[in-house]
Amino acid sequence: MKIATLCLVLANTIRSRAYVQMLFHRELYPSMIMLLPGEEAVKSGMPATIDVPLETWDGAERGSFVFRPYEGVRDTLARHAAEFSVLHNGDINSAEVTGQIKAIAQEYFVYSGYSRVLINADLAGSKRIIHVHGGYLPQYKGATGFYYALLEKGFLGQSAILIDQGVDTGKIISRKKYKIFKNIDVDYVYDPITRADLLAEVLRGLHEKGGFDLTDNEGGVMHYVIHPALKFIAIGRAVART
Amino acid sequence: MPEASKKYALRPEYADVGDAGYLDRWIARRRDAARNIGSIVRIGSNGAAIRPAGARYFVLEIVDAILAEAARGSVSAESVGLVAALQKKFEVFQQVLTGYDSDFRKCADAVEIGGDQYVCLARLLLVCYQQTGSATYLSTSLKIVDYLLLAPGPEIRETAVGMLEQVIDRQLTVIGELQGS
Q1: Which of A49, B78, B85, B165 has minimal Cβ neighbours within 10 Å of its Cβ?
Q2: Residue that wins the pLDDT comparison between A68 and B33
Q3: Would the CB atoms of A151 and B140 count as touching at under 8 Å?
């Protein structure tokens, strides 16, 4: 199904690869796709395909998904004969790119760029930008929030929000808790795939309803990149529970 | 022995835990550091004791007051908020300064706090972790000790060494509890 109001802005990162592969797998096609120039190297030693099981914290199975980490975004788009355009540069906040995005008709954007950035007020005010935050909101704001939830609660949480001017403060579209599994790289595979799973669900809702029922995102605690000792324990404890 | 670069705090490398033996090695190194803690004493002028002009928030006073509050049993939500504000400075700017204005922006003549105040802050972050259960405070407490153990790290006086030993001991106890739970 084609989502007429949606534009996907992608970089050639592992997360964008997960997004586009998952969306196409679920037969969700944005009406416009824009690529940021550049490329992020793929982590070495990854298998060519990874069968990723998906299950929510409350036991609802969401099937499995075959992820191809080495398949670049352009390759996936070509495999599905999807059209795309390339943005002027990799900086979403540059005047050129902001101007390009503001000029198009689509109301909703999914932004999956090269790094964590705050979207400028001009762009955030003119378009509805969907972002999947790696953490269960409103409790887990900030960086590596999903590791803190793994450590404290045992689940991996993801939250889809509409971006505003704050850090992870936009209103919540949907959120979901996932189980994690042994032998799946949390950083490099499970995090982007679970984000993609939630994103696909959210975009299906956008297609069917034409908009979102938003909830407040007040409160919570700001988190910063987790200390590696705690990250190690978080993964170990969560895997031990499965 | 340096365990991590200060600049690691917000860099992706900080998150790379490596192989299955990572945590055991990390704990062994930290225990070793605790045994040799006296070697990191560096006599300084304690410039952190000088209140910057226009400082609404004078970090020396803040940490002393909240430590005294903690010694009485618990700290208030307002105090947790102040510790969180200092935590943010360390995480975002990788240093805490001696004074901030009423908008929590740095004072013009502020300098980086001394090692003694970092020890106090690491202790307070542990208190916040124990009181709220939020591991973000524990994480930053661990990073601050990483920073203190760097060579050459910030000036730290002999009077603060005992508290640093206690902080490391408590951190290792908490890590052990988290591993075992």
Answers
A1: B78
A2: A68
A3: no
